[in-house]
Amino acid sequence: MKVINKYLFSEMSGPFIVGVVGFVLVMAVDLLFTMADLIINKGVPVLAVLKLLIFKMPSILVLTFPVSTLFATTMALGRLSKDSEIIALRTSGVNLFDLAKPIIFFGLVVSIIAFFTNEKIVPQANYLATKIIRQIIYKQPLPGIKENVFFKDAYNRHYYAKRVDLENKTMDNVMVYEVTEEKYPRVILANKAKVSGRIWQLEQGVIHKYDEKGFLKYEAVFSDMKLNISEDVLNFAQQKDSQEMNSKELGGMIDILEKGGGNTNRLRTDLLMKYSVPLTCFVFALIGIPFSLPSPRSGRTWGLIVTIVFMFTFYVFASVFRSLGWGGIVSPAIAAFTPQISFVIFGLLLLGWENKL
C-alpha cells in the first residue's frame, strides 16, 4: 500500500501544480487589464503597479487551491481509469477506501498549506495592497463614514465606535475598555463623542468598574466628559478589516467588542471561516473521487461535469450560510462549518456506495 500511496500522490502533484498556475492566470486576467490601464492611462508608476500585483497574488493563490485539488483528483483518477490501472488494483483486492486514502491525505496537506498561507501571508498582503490602491494609485482620502472601528493605544486602552464620521469628527456608540492593575478593566460607554485632535468629548455615558469576582461595584453616569487619547482620530479610523487580520488579531477584536456588549456575529463568522475555508481542499478531494471513477452509470466526462456542478453548489451553499451567520440567523459555527461537514458526509456516503459496486 505504501507504493500505491506514493504512486497516487505523485500522480496528483503534477496536475495540481498545473491547475494552480492555470487558475491563477485565469483569475489574474481582469487584474492585469486593470493594471495596464493604470500604467497607460492614469500614469501610475510601474513599480507601484508591480507591488500591487505581488500583494494581490497570495489571496488569488489561496482561492485556486480547492479547484486545483479537484482538478488533480479528476486528472489522476482519469489517467488511471484510462489505462485500466484502477480495475487492475480493485481486482487485486485493493478496495476503494484504500485508493482514496492518499487522495484524501493530499487534500488534507493542501488544506494545511492553504490555512497557513491565509493566516501568515494573505492578511498582511491584503493590507499592503489596500494601502497602495488608496494612497498611491487613486490617491483617495479615508472614507467619510466608517463602521465598527476599533484600535488599541500605547496605554493599553482599547477603543471602539459603532460609527465614525470623519468629516464632522463625531462618533456614535463609543466604548473605552481600559486595562488597569485591577483584575477587571474599567469600561466607559458613551452615546456620542466629538473629536478635537486627541481630545474626545464624550456625551451621555456611564463608567463601570468591577470587583475581584467580576461583579459591578461602581457605576457613574455623566452627561459629558473629556478624554485624552494617544492617537489621532484619522489613525483611529484606519483599522484593518477581517480580510487584513490574522485569526489572533481578529479574535482580539472580537473579545473587546463582546466585553463591551457589541454584536460580533459577522466577525466571529469570519474568524471561524479562516479555519473552515481551507478545509474546502480536503472536501473537494473527497467529492472528486466517486465522480472520477469509471462506472456503468456514468463515464468520466459525465463524472467531471457532475463534480463541477457540485463544486459550484458548494460555493453557493457556503455563501448562503456565511450571510446567515453574518445576520445572526444561525450561529457563526454553524455558518462556517455546515457546508464542509455536509459535503464530507455526502462524499463519504458516495464513496461507500461506489465501493460496494
TrEMBL record:
Database matches in Pfam families: LptF_LptG
Membrane keyword on record: yes
Membrane topology recorded in Swiss-Prot or TrEMBL: Multi-pass membrane protein
GO biological process, one term: lipopolysaccharide transport
Location(s), subcellular: Cell membrane
GO CC term (a single one): ATP-binding cassette (ABC) transporter complex
Predominant place of localization: membrane
Domain of life: Bacteria
Membrane-traversing stretches: 16-40, 60-79, 99-117, 275-293, 299-321, 333-353
Protein name: LPS export ABC transporter permease LptG
Organism name: candidate division WOR-1 bacterium RIFOXYC2_FULL_41_25
Lineage: Bacteria, Bacillati, Saganbacteria
